[in-house]
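Fold it.
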Amino acid sequence: MKPIIGLVALAGEFEVGFDKTPGLLKSACESLKNAGFEVVLSDTVMYNTSTMKKAANDLKGKEFDILCVCVGTWSEDHHLLDLLDYINKPVILWAFPAVDTGSLCGVQQICCMLKELDKDYFYVYGNTDDANVITEIGQISRAVALRNKLRFVRIGNIGGRTKGMTDIAYDELEIKDRTGVRVENLDEDELAEAFKSTDEEQAREYWANLKTKVGKVTSTDKHGIESVRYYFAMKELINKYDLEGLVIKCYPKWMGKVCLGYSLLSEEGIVCGCEGDINNTVSMKILYELSGMPVHNTDLLYPDPELNTVLFSHCGSGGFSIASSYNDIHFGPVRLADTGVCSLFPAKTGKVTLVNIVGRKGTFRMSVITGEAIQCGMEFPGNPLKVKFERDINEINRIIANEGIGHHWMAGYGDLVKELEYFCRLNKIRLIKF
């Protein structure tokens, strides 16, 4: 997900540094472009009504996610306020180090104004070639782009939630209000009917080819063909309802039947949640958009206090590209039911961000932990992910219990904490950060 940044400058015509502000704007633009960002530029320095209107005309109607304002000097704050009547976007206020320009002072003044008016704004401080500043602008911009993206996302829910898992009960309106995602509620019969209409011979050929791409297969051809047919059926519903995610009450009726389809859909950019957990399928979508990779769907299973690690896993529906290697992938029956096809493999290593969402109106909250996924074997018949944490795991588990966080954790690759912090701030979501 690549955000688009609108860029403009603000300065006071009687202030020291006014004549250098166009150069700051140009340099800031070059730094952002060199970092890989698309920039929509107004080369105007706003300092009165006519220059504000010129900037508004430059930017009006253009597609961008966030407005970055290079504040070259102290300036009258109402010019930016007037611009926001034309350009209703969140704002990054960029202050530059200097003794005599008043840039930082001016930004602090504007922050006060925007806070009072309940506008979405962010602050960064540093020179145009400061890599930390460019990184921070990128993190903020990705959070805003994520919010913009999720407003148009629909996730299909088939069959409601699994009986006995009250922690995954969801507030459909709160999900829409806080994240932008809309839930499309579908009946189980729709999946069953879509399955009946699939081509069995086509599924047989697909399964025969798929088996050649992995290291081991112990599922029967009968179950493999059935699983591919469910994959075709899910794709039909995804296309029919224009979905970017799918959740099925898989336990216990659909166990092993939809897991392989989940793995295949994950590689196509469709997030798939287990057991009817809508909240954490939204978590998966958030992590997918930020990381650009399939996301692990897990339970927190076993803490090892000696290594300060936690083993996470679920039944085996992860995308193939997050396996330690394709040769490690084993198509085998689902645990407990001993039927169907799961993609069984240990997870690849690397930095991971784990997210859980629970709650309803008034309690809706996101919890975030980061750690390092380390090498592990098939310590659980699913997609075992072993994560080493810096924070003591006993303390982590106590916080989970005290905050009533729930048992499903979605894991995305990369350190995505700052983007999630900014996303929660934008959407007024309570963040619990470990």
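The two ends are 25 Å apart (CA to CA).
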